[in-house]
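Q: What does the assembled structure look like for these inputs?
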Amino acid sequence: MIFFELFYVFFLIGLFTFGGGYGMIPLIQEQVVARGWIDASSITDFIAISESTPGPFAINIATFVGSQTGGIFGALCATIGVVLPSFIVILIIAVLISRFMKNRFVRGALSGVRPIVLGLIFGTAIVFLIKLIISSSNPQSFTLTSSYRESITIFLMVLGFYLAYRHFKKKSPHPIALLAISALLGIVIFWVL
Amino acid sequence: MISIIERETVEKNRWISQAEMFDILSISESTPGPISVNTATFVGYRVAGFWGSFFSTLGLTLPSFVIILLISFFYKTFLSWTIVQAAFLGIRAGVVILLFDAVLKLKKIVKFTPLTTSLFIVTTSLIVLSFFFDFNLSLGSFKFSLSIILILLGFIIGIIATALKKGELDK
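A:
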């Protein structure tokens, strides 16, 4: 049954997401895209939507995939699924073992997981860059398509903005600013020209 | 988001102390699930027990849920407009930079030792290779995906390294 499967898959995603956010993208590719619930290119669109709306990425993507796959009830099942592992684990820690984090094996295990999570995100970033270059990220539902030349042009322009911002302000630009600039460049290059 | 939680619970409502908040945050960062959900559950429990954690988690989830649900209803219509498609084709390039930026920001949570550096490099390479080859194992309806295996491997290696050494892995 689709509702149970949504719950179960997002429960699994919630359970194996550490440090929140983008570390879960490979897991979503492997579990959600592989089941055909959304196509791979929609994930990129969804990262942009999630960055531009309030709330944690995990909840946003669970609600979105659930709703696209099984309507309101599907969204409910997926969202409860993704939140439940956090809820249970934190309750257990808060009730029973508040000294949990002091244990050296717990700390050791976590220091083994952190470089993995960083690698998951870095690997995802490289895969997304490859997809951009070989233009395999054009969704089937789109009437517009992009060539790699156009995508790379936009990429380099946004990269230029990013590097300049970091150089002068000594911090990263806000995600919404980055996305707004790339959206604007997209409109100029693909729609106006 | 974390700074908002801190402002509302520590400074405005004085539900918990700054030191307690610090502990809660470090646990939230190291347990499965979104950091903000973990923090909300924890603070809710400290303030009002089980129902406290239930309602604080519900409160945190509800706005996202409603907003994204509304967006998902209009998503298909919205994407049929060519101007929106053009914007999203541009955004694909922006998202790549966003991901690299996330790596730069998160880099500081890892202490790079020979062991953690190799874990990082192996994970990155496998994720990139998995774009070209399918590494996922299916056992019945359970998909043993690559990232789950890698996370479990990180746990096991971390525990073994701690058992072998007297000190901590990243200190």
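The radius of gyration of chain B is 21 Å.
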